[in-house]
Structure formats: C-alpha cells, structure tokens
Design goal:
Layout: E1 2-9, H1 13-25, E2 31-35, H2 47-52, H3 65-70, E3 73-77, E4 81-85, E5 90-93, E6 98-106, E7 110-112, H4 131-141, E8 146-150, H5 154-165, E9 169-174, H6 186-198, E10 202-205, E11 209-214, E12 219-223, E13 228-231, E14 233-236, E15 240-242, E16 258-259, E17 271-273, E18 278-281, E19 288-290, H7 294-308, E20 323-328, E21 331-337, E22 346-352, E23 357-364, E24 367-374, H8 380-388, H9 397-402, H10 404-415
Parallel strand pairs: 1-2, 1-6, 2-3, 6-17, 8-9, 8-14, 9-10, 16-18
Antiparallel strand pairs: 4-5, 5-6, 7-15, 11-12, 12-13, 18-19, 20-21, 21-24, 22-23, 23-24
Helix pairs in contact: 1-7, 8-10
Pfam families: Pyr_redox_2 (PF07992), Rubredoxin_C (PF18267)
GO molecular function: oxidoreductase activity
Protein name: NAD(P)/FAD-dependent oxidoreductase
Length: about 425
C-alpha cells in the first residue's frame, strides 16, 4: 500500500495553489499529486490559442518537472481517482494503484457537458477541455474550411474566434438570445456580437439544435426552425459539469458540486474540495454556488491547503464573486461581480456606440456590487477586491463613477493590507 500525508487529486490552479500553501507551512510531510492529464500542469485558458497556433502545447506549462522535484512532491500523471474508501483513508486509482492518505483534497475539475441532441453521440465532434482536445481540434482545423460551434459561452466564443484566426468560416449556434449570458447584459453582449459579425463569424442566437447528422466528411446540424447548416468541423461548447463519479459510496454531500464549508471542508472526515468541483458559499446571498473561475479556484485551493496544514493565518472563504476578463478581436471586456441589477441596486451605465465602449456600475448602499465594461481601461483585480472587501465608496462616489480605474486603485493602495 502506497502512503502519503497529503493527497491532492488534480493539478490545475486549485491543486497547484494548494501545493504551494502546504509547503509554506509543512516543509517535510509527503505530498502526492494525481492528475488524469498525461502532461505537466497547464491552464485551460490557453487552449483556444493552441487551436489557432498562437501557443505551442509544449511551452505553456504552469509548473515544470523541477518544481515538483525541488519541493519533494510526488507527481503522478495520466491517472485519476476512481474510488474513495473514507473509513480507511485510501483511494483507488484508475491504474489499480491504491494510496493511503491522512488528508485528501479533491480538485478534479470538470468535464464538458454533451447535450442530449438526437444524433450527436453518433457524430464526429470536438470539445475543448484538455490539451489533447486542443491539439485534436487544431489538427482537424488544418484540413477544414467550415466550422459550427454549439454554445456562445466563454469556451465557445474563444473557440470560434481562434478557429476563425485559423482560417475557417465559423457559425455559432446559441439557444439563448445573447452571447455570454451570465457575464454581460444584452447591451454589452450586442457590442461583442457585433465584433464577431464584423470579423466574419455568423451568429445564430436564439437557435435550438434538434438534430445532428454525420455525413461523409461533414456534419449537418438541424435547427428548431427547420433550417440546416453543414460544416466540416463541429465544436460542442455547451458548458461543463464537475467530475464526481469517484464519490459513489462515500458520505461526501453533493448537489451541483461537492458541498463545502468556508474552510473548503466536506462533510466527510479529512476530505476537502476546491475549484470546479466545489459548491461553496456565495458572496451575495446565503446559499452555496458553483463558481468555476480561475481566481476563485486559486483562492479555494489556498484556503483548503491552509486548513489542511493548520495554518493559523487562515481566513475563511468570504464567498464567490465572479470575475472574468475576456479579450476578443483586439478588444477587451471585463465582468466582475453581479451583471444584472436587483431592486436594491443603483445602476449607472455609459455607452459609446461609435467607439464600441460600454461601462456599467452596480452599487448598493454605496458599495460596489458589480462592474462590467468593454474597451474601457480597467483593472478587474482591483474591482474584485473592492467588492470582496465591501469598500465604502460614499466619499468618492462621483469620482469612482467618472474614473473607476484611478479611483479604485487609489482606494486599494490606502486600504490594502
């Protein structure tokens, strides 16, 4: 039986931050990291750029082999958890190997959602979640002329743009009436959609796919309105779901994801969870939510590790606040916090259609609740901290509305501790 003090399942941002934090406190205990990817750790945010050829798959690692060697960390690649025996504190890997642990962190990420569209499972299609997915998509794109992308979320939009950069004629099919729902309101989304249209991408919003048919060298997609479109390549980007199959038979509580407290502890003894699998406290209301964003995965990984290593400086999780920075066709959009006002919010919006600029600020009791912008100079990290720290903007409200970047940075420089 193999044995390790800390067992970390997953080597993306949550898992890597956990490694770092544990080693700051515990320099000698054994740490074993298991990742189903055969490669050294990389960020999934780089994958669209691998598709377009802008990034080399072999030059985008987050941590190289020497990093793990120098920290005396046992890295197991190309393997994954398939079962947990919590009573005996041991896991079984897909390879058949078993490991005993004292403390276990589940940071196993998410898998693509494949919608139950008739004919899709029999068709040849791509997803974009792993490096191998990106390499496969890039290879196919090299011989294709046309592409259909199902879904106008971040993965679909990034994928569509980079397929366009690779020279393909691209059509996006989205069942919602706008792109990037959940990140931007309809006015901001229309600015982004216009940029895609201007760069030759066809946008079919409010369109539901009812059938997919594989043809000889192409794929035909039939829409609910009866229209059909055909392309050489099909990318399915309709969302992700947490990977949880290894939890069968455990006492770990699950709703949409693994339920955790503000220290990232599960209900099961000696088991924590962080990142895309964790369903944790929401910042705005008393419930637990799936966040699925990179900065939050880092935060959760750090908190889990600090609790696991009994770091006395641990500050419990304050709750998830969405933060996304999105670059498209040389333009930039950010969305931090809430994107839609409620009955208690004060909404201030500035729109400059001629210059494709947009700014929306949401305040509540003179505290920032959310901010979204397109082609405005902005620091998403500062805005994120203003929300998390509940900074009172009363004395600088007018200045913040007029110059959110400069005012926000000045506030943070005086309050950051």
């Amino acid at each position: 039986m193999n044995s390790t003090h800390y067992l970390i399942a997953g080597a993306s941002h949550a898992g890597l931050e956990a490694i770092h934090r544990i080693r700051l406190i515990d320099e000698t205990a054994t740490i074993t990291v298991v990742t189903r990817d055969a490669r050294l750790p990389y960020s999934p945010t780089i994958l669209p750029y691998v598709v377009s050829g802008q990034s080399d798959p072999d030059r985008v690692v987050l941590r190289n082999a020497d990093y793990f060697k120098n920290l005396n960390i046992n890295l197991i690649t190309g393997d994954e958890l398939v079962a947990i025996d919590e009573a005996n504190k041991q896991v079984t890997l897909q390879s058949g190997d078993q490991w005993h642990y004292e403390k276990l962190l589940l940071a196993t990420g998410a898998d693509p959602i494949i919608p139950p569209i008739p004919g899709l499972s029999e068709a040849s299609f791509h997803v974009l979640r792993t490096m191998q997915d990106a390499i496969n998509l890039r290879t196919h794109a090299g011989s294709a002329k046309t592409a259909i992308v199902l879904g106008a979320g971040l993965i679909g939009m990034h994928g569509a743009e980079n397929l366009r950069h690779a020279g393909l004629d691209v059509t996006i099919v989205e069942m919602c009436d706008q792109v990037l729902p959940g990140y931007f309101d309809t006015r901001a989304a229309s600015v982004i959609q216009t940029a895609f249209n201007s760069n030759g991408i066809t946008m079919l919003m409010g369109s539901r796919v009812v059938k997919v048919e594989q043809q000889a060298q192409s794929c035909q997609v039939t829409l609910e309105n009866g229209n059909s479109i055909t392309a050489d390549l099909l990318l399915v980007a309709t969302g992700v779901k947490p990977k949880l199959d290894y939890l069968k038979g455990t006492s770990v509580q699950v709703e949409e994801g693994i339920l955790v407290d503000r220290n990232m502890r599960t209900d099961a003894p000696a088991i924590w969870a962080a990142g895309d699998v964790a369903q944790a406290a929401d910042f705005y209301q008393d419930k637990k939510v799936m966040m699925g964003i990179l900065p939050d995965a880092v935060t959760q990984g750090a908190i889990a590790a600090m609790d696991m290593s009994e770091d006395y400086t641990l500050q419990p999780y304050t709750g998830g606040v969405p933060i996304n920075t999105y670059t498209f066709f040389g333009q930039q959009a950010i969305s931090v916090g809430q994107c839609m006002a409620d009955d208690q919010s004060e909404e201030l919006t500035q729109v400059d259609d001629d210059n494709h600029r947009y700014l929306k600020i949401l305040l509540k009791d003179n505290q920032l609740q959310g901010i979204s912008s397109i082609n405005e100079e902005m620091d998403a990290g500062v805005m994120w901290q203003l929300i998390l720290r509940k900074i009172d903007l009363t004395s600088v409200k007018d200045a913040f509305i007029a110059r959110p970047l400069e005012t926000g940075r000045a506030l943070m420089s005086s309050t950051w501790r």
